[in-house]
Amino acid sequence: MYGAPVTGPMEIPQEPPSYFAQIPAELPEMKDATVGTLRLEGTLAKRLPQMPSGDLQDLSFTNYKQLEAMQLMNEMRYVYDISRQQESRSRAKARARNRQAQKQAERR
Question: Is 80 inside a domain boundary?
Fold first, then answer.
């Protein structure tokens, strides 16, 4: 007798997939994780000073620390002004509520 039996359904035997077949041929390059590299990681990302301003003959660098401090102070002034306005509005609302409560208390 040649071939598969015809009395039952034909089944093709399949092998389970191999674990090693799932690993790609090339692995991605790993980042250096030595102690020295990890220790320096926070210091390497610091900002560089700004480029020279004006003409190329004038290679004086701007004082970026002073500019950053001035920008921070301006932002703090702006935020403090907003909080002052909010505080004055809430004080005015509280005074109005107190007046309303006083009027209702005097009516009784």
Answer: yes
